[in-house]
Structure formats: structure tokens, C-alpha cells
Amino acid sequence: xxxEFLIHLILWAPLVGFAINGIFGxxxxxxxxxxxxxxxxxxxxxxxxxxxxxxxxxxQINYYRWFGTxxxxxxxxxxxxxxxxxxxxxxxxxxxxxIHLYSVGYMEHDKGFVRFMSYLNLFIFSMLLLVxxxxxxxxxxxxxxxxxxxxxxxxxxxxxxxxxKAARKAFVMNRIGDLGFMLGIFLLGLEFRTLDIPTxxxxxxxxxxxxxxxxxxxxxxxxxxxxKSAQIPLFTWLPDAMAGPTPVSALIHAAxxxxxxxxxxxRMSGLFNLAPFTLDVIAWVGxxxxxxxxxxxxxxxxxxxxxxxxxxxxxGFMAVALGCAAYSTAIFHVMTHAFFKALxxxxxxxxxxxxxxxxxxxxxxxxxxxxxxxHLVFLIGTLAIAGVPPLAGFFSKDEILAAAFSHSIWYxxxxxxxxxxxxxxxxxxxxxxxxxxxxxxxxxxxxxHESGLVMLAPLFVLAFLSVVGxxxxxPETISSKHLVSDFLKPVVADHAxxxxxxxxxxxxxxxxxLLVLIVWLTNKMYSVNSAEVFRSGSGWVGxxxxxxxxxxxxxxxxxxxxxxxxxxxxxxxMDPGVIDQAVKLPGLxxxxxxxxxxxxxxGIISWYMISIVLGLLAMIYLFLF
Amino acid sequence: xxxxxxxxxxxxxxxSATLVIISRHPIRSILFLVLTFFLVSAxxxxxxxxxxxxxxxxxxxxxxxxxxxxxVMFLNLNEEMVEVKxxxxxxxxxxxxxxxxxxxxxxxxxxxxTSPQLVSNYNIGLVENLGSVLYREYLLPMELSAVxxxxxxxxxxxxxxxERISE
Amino acid sequence: MxxxxxxxxxxxxxxxxxxxxxxxxxxxxxxVMIRKNVIIVFMCIEIMLNAVNLMLTSTSAYYSHAGxxxxxxxxxxxxxxxxxxxxxxxxxxxxxxxxxNIDVFQRLKG
Lengths: 625, 167, 110
Prior knowledge:
By secondary structure, chain B is mainly alpha-helical.
């Protein structure tokens, strides 16, 4: 099959699925709808594999001229597939397919099943548009599409006001970032007269590094990234987004939406390379995000919240990689993270499903016997994210640490500390959930059950990927071939990093020792029979962490509060006092004028005649003299 | 000779028209109006517009004025109406009418009139001539005026029919 | 009839006819403004119409253009129709209000 046809298939199949389910879904049985929904991303995945097998050069398909100005500036509805896109396509369609499959099992009893599946399809379509868009407007369309879908999916159980609030929060936070992104696009279009990504990047060759305009543009783009990829200061929506059904959390946090920001920076790497200042900003924001989120995760008791904060933390890692201009490393981490985070989320979903909706880990424990398969895959996920060699997370995280070390010792120190924290909270989660003894009520204990095969199958696939995924990017100490960065070399402008081999060995050794220590400690602390250890701490550090650094409250006080009171002031003072009066004034003038003029219409016909004659006089006078 | 006739006729026309508007008695007004129409017809004759002179007498003095008279008689309006309460409307009317006349005559000063020497055909006012113009160039308006009459007739009948008050 | 110049065109300037029509028109106008009896007001309107007719006819005659006299013919037609309808309305009003005083028309005021 020719590759253009495959690209059509990849892009449009999920949309067709969405349309079919969205329009005719109400008349389908759950099985039919699920089958149709899964077919979309599955077609995409198969096509991606076929496309990859015959891939030799960048393919660009121009559907039509979208809009433009009479002078050369124009934006096309066009898609492009190069190495970076292809890799993202694998992640999006592959993990997307697994999550679709899993959702069929997880959501089968839900009333809105068909609606849910069609949203998922739309989400996949938007994400594909994002990664395949060959110009920034297309990318932005996909960007907005995933924003919309995340809003729809987080607020999927729309009868719960809290969930709606979470959905709204996600939407608004993203909107703040989108504003920056949009301004960045405008400036780019203004500066280079084109938004086509390949053209843009090729025109970068003539630009001097550190050009203030470029720095401004990249900073604006990065504001968009902070919104979508949940960086400080716009990350608070992501943990709240746990309101959505668990497959949504997996889809948003693992495979798709949050990686969009990382993808954007990697895609525009040629641009970002010209702005060292922005790269520093990205790195520091990433460091802060990674560290803050990891510390918050230490004290959370909601299984999904812990995973959410760990996602934020991992996104921080990726941002640091970007900030070190190690773009392929970031993408590599996106990939491995997609595997193990989807695995962890779906595993957590399986746990929640088995416990009939219980999400509090202080009420879990000892599940390793009741849910053997889930326990196994969750353990693999935990090991992978904690960075145990030779699982996926080890390689990618090691690479990020190396890049950070070669860039600055401070980056490395903070990042390494964060990595330790990551291992800590993940093992805490693992031991609290699966070890010790069950801490919930007796009645619920009887109902614990393992999930069905539809849900477990994707878990096993993801677990397998989490184990072997890292071998795609082995450090040169082990193998001279780094599959991911070699693959991405033509499209991503990496800076070369190298650390001495001895350092690598030391790093691994220290990692292993620390890991063993952490496992031993967390096992001791959290494999417990009582929920005592999960009670809120008394120390101020614990309180701050539990309160998530009170960021929501700070935003409320500093931003939302003043805005709201300004709005109230406008509503109570400005609106009735000034605007209403200004609107009423003309009406008042004319009414009073009418009252004043009414006596003129006396009904006395002689006067009318006289007035007519006078008017005639005036007119003749005006016309003739 | 003829200029004297013109001036006498003009004076009589104006006097008779003035008498129409100042007579207290409606019947008297009507009779002066008939006189005015006759005098205007005389002017038409002077202007060699015999056809119009005839039509004027037949239509105005004959038909229309009979209609007026008939209505006045029919409504029994013979007695005088107490008309004048204040003379303010009179003043206002005369002043505004006078200014209109003033302004029209002064406009006449400004008007560029081609000289009457251009006159070539003096018989246009005769029936033969007018008839041919009317039925050639103005055929459509002519027919339309017939329609107008028909509508007016229908309207009058509609207005004049007996109201069925009892229902 | 042979085509000979009527005396009047040499003896009297056209302007005099214009003046005469204007005076007649103004007289009619003043009548409309001051009289209270609707029928008289109506008659004054007829005077005004006649003034215009005279103007049209004289101009037509002085300038040898038949259009003016045709116009007069139409004016008469319209005037006849107008009088018929107008008088019918007056009769109706008199039937209802037992007056032809123009002041009763004040009731038509909105």
C-alpha cells in the first residue's frame, strides 16, 4: 500500500469512529460500539507499522489551502510524517489502542459507555492532528482538540459538581497556556511570513543565537507548554483531572495530551536552540516542577493522585531534558513513560475496579493475593518508573541524568534527589496497596475481585513494553546503537552530550544501592496492618506537602479572588452606574423630547395648514436662494 | 383692447375668489366659486384653449359645484356657522400666505424664461389637436384615469351605503 | 382654424399670468387656513387647483406645448374623483357628528 493512503487512514480512522459512534451510537449495543471505537486507533496502529516498514523520507500531504492573505502568506490543511511524528504515532495509536481495549472492560457498566468511547476516538483524532500537523496552525488545532476532549472526559461524570469543576479548571489552565502559544504563533507568522514547520526550521539557519525576538517567541511557546504539559505554575489542573474515569487519566497522563508540550518543543528544537536563555528557563521550570510534584506525591493517599503527581514530576524530568537540548532524550522518556505510566494507571484502575471504586490507599493493603495479575504488572510498572535496571525507566532516566550532569552539576543534584523521591513514593504506593493486610471494612473485602481479561490483556502488553522499551535507547556504555536518537537524528537538533563511562558506572551503582535501601525502608514503613502511618502528619513539612504547597489557595487569593472581586465591583457599580445609565440616556433624551413636542400635535387643522405653508416657504427659500 | 379685457378679467377673478373665502354664508360661497370658475374659463378662451374652457365649465361649474350645492342643501347647512373666535389664525394665515406669494414672485425674478417668441403653433388648445395628443402620447394615463374614476365611484358607494347599526 | 397669432400673446407678458395664478393660489391657501367649515375648506382647495390649472394652461399656450393642457385635463379628472370621495366622507362625518366644523376633526388626533 502506498504511504499516502496509510497516512489518510491513520488520521481519519478515529474521526470516522467518533462520527459513527457519536451519531448512531444510541442504537448500538455496547459490544458493537466498543468494537467500532477500538477499530479506529487499531487501524491507525496497523497503518503506522506498515508506514514505518516502508518509511524512507518525510512525507507531506497537502489537503487544501486553509486560509491566507493575498500576499504569499498562507496556511494549508496539511499533514506531515517524519521520524518524530512516526515515533509519536506509535505511542499515540499503540497505547491508545490498548487503552480503548481496556476501556471496553472498565466502562462496560457505565450508562454513557458509547459517549465515552466516541470521546476517546475524538481525543485520539485530535492528538493525531497535533503530531501530524505540518504547520503550527494545524498543530494548534490538534492542541485545542485535545484540550476540548480532556474537558469532556474529565467532566465525563457530569452529574458530580466537583468533577465539573475539575474539568473547568483543566480547561481554564490550558487556556492560559494556549494564549501564550497563540501569541507565539502570531509572532512567528509575523516574523517569518510562514507557519509551515519545515520551512520555519530551515529559515532558522540565518538567525543569530540569542536574538531577543526568538527568545520572546520561545518563551511564549513555552507558556503554552507549561499549560499542556503541566509545568509550574500551571500544573495544578492535572491532579484534579483525576476526576475523570481511570482510562482517561491513563490516556491524558501517559500517552497523549501532556506529552504534547514536550513534542512541541522537540518539534521546534531548531528554534529553541537559538534561545539559550529559554532553554535555561525550561530546565529550571522542569527542575522545580519535578521536585515539587515529587514531594507532594510523598504525602498523598489517593492512588490516582500519587500517580498524577508522579506524572507531573516525570514531565518535569522531560522538561529538564529539553532544557539541556537533549530533545531525543526527552522524546525517549516520553515513550518509556507512556508505557509504564499507562501501565500504572490502568493497573490502578484495575485495583479501583476490583475494590468497587475505592481510591484511598490507607484503606487498601494485602491485595497481592486477591489480584495476582494486577499485582505483577503494577510491580513491573513501579520498578520501571523507579528506574530499576534494566527496565524502561532506568534507561531514559539515566540518559536525562547524564544530560543534566553534563550541563550543570546543580541540575544533576536536584534531579537525582527527585529520582530518589520518585522511587520512594512509588514503593510507598506499591507496598501500601499490595502488602501488609487489608485495612478496609470487612464487607468490602469479600467483594475484591480480579479484573477481566479485556482489562488485563492491555496491562500485560504494557508490562512487556515497560520491561523491554528501554532497550530502544541504551547508553553507549552498553551499546553503540541508540535506536531512538539515531532514528530522530534527521529531525531533532540535539546537542551532543557525553559523560565519562566511569561516571555512568558510579551512577548505576549508587542508583542500585539507593533503590535497595528505599525498597527496604518503604517496605518496613508501609507494609503495615493499620492505617496509622497514612494519617496526616503533625510537622509543618508534612502539612505543607499534604496541602500541595497550598498552591491552589495561593492562586485563589492572588489571582482568582481579586479577579472575582473586580468582577463583582463591575457588576455592582460599573454596570448599573455607568453602562446602564449610558444606555438609558439616549432613550431618556428622546422620551423627554417627545413629551416636549407632543403639544405641537394639537389636532387644530388650521395650525397644521399654517405649519405646512411655513415648511413650504422654508423649502422654497432653501432651494431657490 | 385685449389687455384691458385681461386686466378686468383678472381683477374680477381675484375679487370673486376672495369673496368665496370671506362669505359667511355657504351658499353664497358656492355661487362665487361658480363665478370664479366661469372667469377662469374666460381666461382659457383668451389663451385660445377652447377645449379646456369648455371642460372647465362642464366639469367644475357643472358637475362639481352641483355636487357641492347638493351636499350643502342636503345637510341643511344654510345657517351661518360661528367661525371666528380669535383673529390670530387670520393674521397668521394672511401673513404666511403673503410671504409665500412674495417668495414665489421673487423666485419668478430669478427664473430664466425663454421668450414667448418661440411660439409656433397657436392651435394646440383646440379639440382636434388635444385629442390626437391625448390618444396617442397619453393613452396609458388616460386609461388609468378611467380606472381611477371607477375606484372613486366604488369608494363613494362604499362610504355612502347604509350602515347596519342594528346588528 | 388657420394658424394665426392670438392678440393676447403680444399684449400681455406671460409673467402676468404667473402672477395671477399665484395670487389665486394664495387666496385659496388663505381660505384653507382660516375657514372652519369643511365644505368651504374643500372649495378653497378647488380654487388652488384652478390656480394651478390656469398656470399650466397659460404656460402651455405661450410655449406651444400640448403637455400642459393635457396635464390640466388629468388634474380635472383627479379633482372630480377627489371631490366625489371627499364629499362622501364629509357626509359620513356629518351623519355621525352632526357638524361640519373642522374642529371636530380634532378627534382624529392620536
